[in-house]
Design the sequence.
């Protein structure tokens, strides 16, 4: 039974002003670009065109259409059961972190492939490097400890030749390391980004996914399947987000002169206190917290640098000007 058609705001105001996904999806336009999307688009109970977000194939095809429409990606796919991230949220991170670089540079966002970014846990989808390169022409290193993710990300780069000189994928052979084995001797990174695993165990990840699907589908689901995709290392790790970020912060100290801004998304507000205490302990010189919002979900980016104002100025004059 159809319900009264909802009035939608013209823009998703919580998203960053430069985010290309602030308006509602234009499915006619997206289907013109990606005809395979058509079979997944249906009228929902409010008589709005939408897809079934319960269906991982539909979500993947929507992502493919968005990447083609907005980021010139003509060939994109991920292996079955791998994480299919929300494109608008990933774009938001990139735009907010670009503003952070701009704040360090007298309000001017540095652009071009001389700006080198590290995506920690690039995944099979390679989405952060794609968006960052398209929007700001930054070059990227994508690291991952999963060989299948590395192979998939490399295939995306290979099938979209304009990415070849811009994105390099490196495998992390020691899953306990985050920066060691990835950042080379004397290599300088302007920015690191990361979307850490949320959950502390497989059971917790399954429970959260079931809850999400119940909310989306408006009915009770007891089967804890990861319909949104995601391998173990993408969705959970021992100690969850809190532990992963703790390791990242501790290990970042060793590379204090190698990276201008370190950053990570923090999904759980309850983890912030611990993050700030750790950053104080490792003597970060400057710490920034950047709020983000998508729909009802509120998250944030925490960024830190070990560079003094003098060192920051020297870095900018040497690399960005």
Sequence:
């Amino acid at each position: 039974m159809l319900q009264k058609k909802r009035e939608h705001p013209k823009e998703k105001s919580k998203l960053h002003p430069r985010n290309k996904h602030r308006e509602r999806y234009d499915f006619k336009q997206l289907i013109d670009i990606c005809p395979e999307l058509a079979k997944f688009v249906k009228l929902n109970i409010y008589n709005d065109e939408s897809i079934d977000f319960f269906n991982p194939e539909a979500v993947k095809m929507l992502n493919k259409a968005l990447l083609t429409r907005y980021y010139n990606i003509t060939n994109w796919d991920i292996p079955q059961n791998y994480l299919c991230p929300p494109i608008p949220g990933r774009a938001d991170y990139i735009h907010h972190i670009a503003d952070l670089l701009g704040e360090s540079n007298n309000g001017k966002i540095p652009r071009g492939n001389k700006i080198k970014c590290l995506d920690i846990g690039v995944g099979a989808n390679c989405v952060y490097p794609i968006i960052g390169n398209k929007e700001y022409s930054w070059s990227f290193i994508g690291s991952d400890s999963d060989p299948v993710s590395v192979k998939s990300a490399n295939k995306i780069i290979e099938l979209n030749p304009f990415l070849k000189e811009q994105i390099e994928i490196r495998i992390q052979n020691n899953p306990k390391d985050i920066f060691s084995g990835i950042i080379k001797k004397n290599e300088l990174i302007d920015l690191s980004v990361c979307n850490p695993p949320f959950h502390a165990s497989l059971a917790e990840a399954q429970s959260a996914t079931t809850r999400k699907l119940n909310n989306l589908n408006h009915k009770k689901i007891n089967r804890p399947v990861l319909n949104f995709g995601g391998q173990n290392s993408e969705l959970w790790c021992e100690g969850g987000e809190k532990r992963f970020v703790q390791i990242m912060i501790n290990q970042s100290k060793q590379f204090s002169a190698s990276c201008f801004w370190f950053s990570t998304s923090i999904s759980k507000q309850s983890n912030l206190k611990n993050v700030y205490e750790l950053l104080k302990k490792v003597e970060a010189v400057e710490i920034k917290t950047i709020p983000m919002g998508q729909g009802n979900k509120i998250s944030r980016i925490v960024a830190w640098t070990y560079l003094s104002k003098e060192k920051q100025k020297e870095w900018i004059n040497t690399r960005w000007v």
